[in-house]
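User: Quick sanity check before I run a bigger batch. Here is a single chain. Can you write out its predicted 3D structure?
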Amino acid sequence: MTQKHLNDAETLWEPQLQGTGAEDEYWDWVAKSRRAKLLPGDELYAIECDGVTQGLMTIDVLKKRCQIESQFRRRLVYIRALATAPWNRPAIMNPPTYKGVGGNLIDFAICASQQRFAIARSYELAYQGRIGLHALPGALGFYRKLRVGLLDCGCDPEDPDNLIYFETLQQEP
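Assistant: Done. Predicted structure follows.
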């Protein structure tokens, strides 16, 4: 993620999100970027098409552990935040400009590889493809339909917002 991506989020996304009631309407990607630069293990990614930022994601590759395989305390790639541009959301613009941006942040191929991005990053870190995330209520259907096989673990009692937690088991490379 570059300053240009953050500028797009601030100048293009924010005005279009105002008043939509979207759950991420008040997310501040500049602040998320500052925080990620201070925290070891946080990484930021963007998808750009036609010179405009279409999706943003921040992940944590150091601090989170598996809940499903909790007895082993295995590490995973935790998706801290994921958002698509307002014009790519059917609830805001129908039809959306681009479909699948959010899924591609999780699921797109790197180079010639057929591995999914977050999962590929998990392999690079020797986490055997494990990823986890907490889903905003409006995104539950999206995560339940993803091809990566996220398991719905239900409400997380340790999450202050009582969000639904999703996690993958060890994946085959």
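Residues 3-17 form the longest helix (15 residues).

User: Great, the batch can go ahead then.
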